[in-house]
């Protein structure tokens, strides 16, 4: 399905860019691991271009064009794009899922802020839960309860990422903490960017994010039982590798500004062993009623898209089209500024 050379390129991209996923992927069967590596490479490279590129608007607009080409069956001549196009064809990947990811990255491109925890969950739904739903598609799972729990896991993992990166994001002028939390303590966003400190109030916000993540980690677990037997250890591994970051952050007093928390290779190996045991345990235990919990309101559209794929071509909504217009305006402004700089140099 995927050209071996393209797959090797994707594997290297993930090995260098996502240690936790690379570790967890070792426990997935090859039939899921290989397309998952290709999927994560496409998503991760796109995310990195937006996060760390000099021209965020241009990076998002470029991703929009790459997605259009992949779904037209004429991907850009690059390993990750060719591999992603192969996944679309083989697994009938609902376009609404990568479109959701694109929308989340577009929000990054316009440096959108989030007033409430619900809005942070909406962002997390797009940049992480959408990937969880796509992973279910790669396992050929379209059960709405399994999809709901997979989306819980995706949101939990993204909240963990946000909690871990508060300091790093602030120093880069990014903010994913709910702005109403800052308002509650009278902290101005620009003042926080100018001098991010691990104050008791900021640590309390990190703790609140991790508490929500922990709730969703536990809510996600019953869904793993509904996945193919061979895939369960790998998904448990992803759950435990990310959760371990939050636990280590808690042991350090929820300070994610003074240093960036990460887990060691030895710790990850222990978590892989734990994941194998938990996968065996969940297979023989009675199914929890939690599996039937309604999806988070913020992810319901993802569950519906994956469980009931619409064969009609997707029509981008006014919301994302408005974001694209903002990005295009920013991109033109950046290009004009560069032109003037060169002209006056």
From TrEMBL:
CDD domains the UniProt entry points to: Trans_IPPS_HH
Record InterPro entries: Isoprenoid_synthase_dom_sf (IPR008949), Squ/phyt_synthse (IPR002060), Squalene/phytoene_synthase_CS (IPR019845), Trans_IPPS_bact-type (IPR044843), Trans_IPPS_HH (IPR033904)
One Pfam family this sequence matches: SQS_PSY
PROSITE patterns: SQUALEN_PHYTOEN_SYN_1 (PS01044), SQUALEN_PHYTOEN_SYN_2 (PS01045)
Gene3D superfamilies in alphabetical order: Farnesyl Diphosphate Synthase
Highest taxon above the source species: Bacteria
Keywords linked to the UniProt accession: Transferase
Protein name per its UniProtKB record: Phytoene/squalene synthase family protein
Originating species: [Roseibacterium] beibuensis
């Amino acid at each position: 399905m995927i050209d071996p050379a393209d797959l090797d390129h994707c594997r290297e991209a993930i090995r260098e860019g996502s240690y936790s996923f690379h570790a967890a992927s070792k426990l997935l069967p090859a039939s899921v691991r290989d397309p998952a590596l290709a999927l994560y490479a496409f998503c991760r490279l796109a995310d990195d271009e937006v996060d760390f590129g000099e021209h965020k608007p241009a990076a998002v607009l470029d991703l929009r064009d790459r997605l259009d080409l992949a779904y037209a069956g004429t991907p850009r001549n690059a390993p990750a794009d060719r591999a992603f196009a192969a996944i679309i064809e083989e697994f009938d990947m609902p376009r609404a899922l990568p479109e959701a990811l694109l929308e989340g990255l577009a929000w990054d491109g316009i440096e959108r802020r989030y007033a409430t925890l619900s809005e942070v969950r909406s962002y997390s739904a797009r940049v992480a839960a959408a990937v969880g739903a796509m992973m279910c598609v790669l396992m050929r799972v379209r059960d709405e309860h399994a999809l709901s729990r997979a989306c819980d896991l995706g949101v939990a993992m993204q909240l963990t990422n946000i909690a871990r990166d508060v300091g790093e994001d602030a120093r880069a002028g990014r903010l994913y903490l709910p702005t109403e939390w800052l308002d509650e303590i009278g902290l101005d966003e620009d003042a926080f960017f100018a001098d991010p400190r691990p104050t008791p109030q900021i640590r309390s916000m990190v703790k609140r994010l991790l508490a929500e993540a922990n709730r969703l980690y536990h809510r996600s677990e019953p869904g793993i039982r509904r996945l193919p037997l061979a895939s369960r250890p790998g998904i448990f591994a992803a759950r435990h590798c990310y959760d371990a970051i939050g636990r280590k952050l808690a042991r350090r007093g929820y300070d994610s500004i003074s240093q960036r928390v990460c887990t060691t290779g030895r710790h990850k190996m222990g978590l892989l062993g734990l994941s194998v045991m938990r996968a065996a345990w969940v297979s023989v235990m009675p199914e929890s009623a939690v599996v039937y919990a309604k999806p988070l309101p913020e992810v319901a559209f993802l569950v519906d898209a994956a469980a009931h794929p619409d064969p009609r071509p997707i029509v981008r909504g006014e919301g994302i089209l408005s974001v694209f217009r903002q990005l295009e305006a920013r991109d033109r402004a950046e290009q004009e500024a560069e032109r003037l700089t060169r002209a006056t140099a």
